[in-house]
Specification:
Elements lengths: L13 H35 L3 H29 L1 H4 L2 H13 L5 H29 L2 H32 L4 H7 L1 H12 L6 H6 L3 H12 L19 H32 L1 H7 L5 H27 L2 H21 L5 H14 L1 H13 L3 H32 L1 H23 L8 H5 L22
Helix pairs in contact: 1-2, 1-5, 1-6, 1-7, 1-8, 2-5, 2-17, 4-5, 4-8, 5-16, 5-17, 6-7, 6-13, 6-16, 11-16, 11-17, 11-18, 12-13, 13-15, 13-16, 14-15, 14-16, 14-18, 16-17, 17-18
């Protein structure tokens, strides 16, 4: 029995939910890996006799690794397929995390955490490409947005697990803390067993029979290639060639908006107590404020996840940059104001920036075709980590040299750059078929039928 329903219009099923868990694990590990070192460092430093130089380098090692891993993961995922690269990250998590248990020097610890960062960088392009290429279009945005929430869940778990191990683990507790990532890596490896290859990637390589077999397996015997919106087979164009064919503007949009959204967030999140202290909040105000800001980051992402379809991608991004930028601007102007106003503005920033945060993984997966989708996510991931690293590094220096007011004005300026770029370049992709959203056609109204896609095939 056959039907005419597109696979992008089917209801969310058990496979989709399991795939969200399988892919979301990468974001969870990212939050865990980046947070666990901060918890363990108080014990690691004296145990290994680390100098301040090596402390800073080890703290930044995973971010450096993510930069290289994003490029590598994107290129390999587009060239070798989604399924093969799906297991590279978990394998590296297991091997490198177990090896950290026996580490004896700062240099070796840096190398192992660098490789863990590479694994995280690989995760983003492959996990999100897998998710977007199977997911129904109504669930595509919310499921991709959920990955951002899982990052915070991973960070929170790292704090809870790390604190528990350090309190009850004895002299070598820090070794168990660093090695704990291996447990998550092993679970991620196991839960991904049995994941089929993406039919879209197989079709782009001319492997139609394999693609049809997977479509029947996932969606039922009544489905076939006819139920998948048409796409062109890859002509072995390089990533650079496709960018020159018209996708360069979209790559610029993704890179700039991602950097502008993540740079102030990492800086604020990493140094919330120090920033609050500079704003004359101390004691309980600073302690409770840091907790509240963290919670509001999560709440903001949850709200944005609910709005990503109803409000639309473009409007959500513009509102997110506008209101979060205004909150930072007011923080600079009201730096000597009452404590409650300061916390209110900080909370507003954390809440409103959620829209830009969740769209970091939605946009690059929707506006690029199958043959360069993972590569585009990889580039966005890598470039965003430059902004994260620079922002994190410069905040203490900025607070000391130019003060809290100017620091907040700079953060607001970066956010408004994201707003301006998004105003001119952000497309609307909600409710559009994945191939339609990835085409270079600039129309804003979604097309329900996939039949009209044929005339755009030559564009990608």
């Amino acid at each position: 029995m056959s039907n005419n329903i597109s696979v992008e219009d089917v209801p969310l099923n058990r496979f989709h939910r399991l795939l969200t868990v399988r892919s979301g694990g990468g974001s969870f590990v990212d939050g865990y890996v980046l947070s666990i070192i901060g918890i363990a460092m108080t014990k690691v430093s004296p145990a290994l006799g680390l100098s301040p130089f090596w402390e800073g380098l080890i703290a930044a090692s995973a971010l450096i690794g993510i930069f290289f891993g994003g490029f590598l993961g994107g290129a390999l995922t587009d060239r070798l397929g989604r399924r093969m690269i799906y297991f590279v990250g978990p394998t590296l998590f297991i091997v490198c995390s177990v090896a950290q248990f026996w580490v004896q020097s700062g240099e070796v610890l840096f190398a192992l955490r660098f490789l863990n960062g590479v694994a995280v960088g690989i995760e983003y392009p492959v996990a999100t490409a897998f998710l977007v290429e199977f997911m129904p279009k109504k669930s595509r945005g919310p499921c991709l947005a959920t990955l951002t929430i899982l990052w915070f869940a991973g960070a929170a778990t790292a704090y809870l697990v790390g604190d528990a191990i350090l309190n009850f683990g004895g002299t070598d507790a820090w070794r168990y803390t660093l090695a704990s990532t291996a447990v998550i890596g092993a679970l991620l490896f196991l839960v991904r067993l049995g994941t089929p290859e993406s039919p879209r990637w197989l079709i782009s390589k001319g492997r139609h029979k394999e693609a049809e077999a997977i479509i029947r397996r996932v969606y039922g015997s009544g489905f076939s290639l006819k139920n998948l919106p048409e796409q062109a087979e890859s002509k072995n164009l390089s990533f650079a060639s496709l960018l020159h064919s018209g996708y360069g503007k979209r790559m610029a949009f993704v890179t700039i908006f991602w950097m502008c959204s993540v740079t102030p967030v990492f800086a604020v999140y990493a140094f919330a107590p120090k920033v609050l202290e500079a704003l004359h909040l101390s004691g309980d105000w600073a302690s409770y404020g840091s907790i509240a800001i963290t919670l509001l980051f999560v709440v903001g992402c949850i709200i944005a996840t609910r709005l990503v379809n109803t409000l639309g991608r473009r409007k959500l991004l513009l509102h997110s940059f506008l209101w979060s930028g205004l909150a930072l601007l007011l923080l600079g102007a009201l730096r000597d104001g009452p404590s409650m106003i300061i916390l209110l503005m900080f909370g507003a920033y954390a809440l409103f920036i959620g829209g830009a945060q969740v769209l970091q993984l939605v946009y690059p997966n929707e506006i690029f075709p199958t043959e360069i989708r993972a590569g585009a996510v990889g580039v966005g991931t890598s470039m965003s980590r430059i902004g994260a690293a620079v922002g994190t590094y410069l905040v203490p220096i900025s607070l000391q040299s130019i003060g809290i007011g100017s620091t907040m004005y700079i953060a607001a300026g970066i956010t408004f750059i994201g707003l301006i770029v998004s105003w001119f370049l952000a497309p609307e992709t909600a409710a559009r078929d994945l191939n339609d959203a990835a085409s270079l056609n600039e129309e804003t109204e979604p097309r329900v039928s996939s039949g009209g896609l044929n005339k755009h095939r030559n564009q990608y």
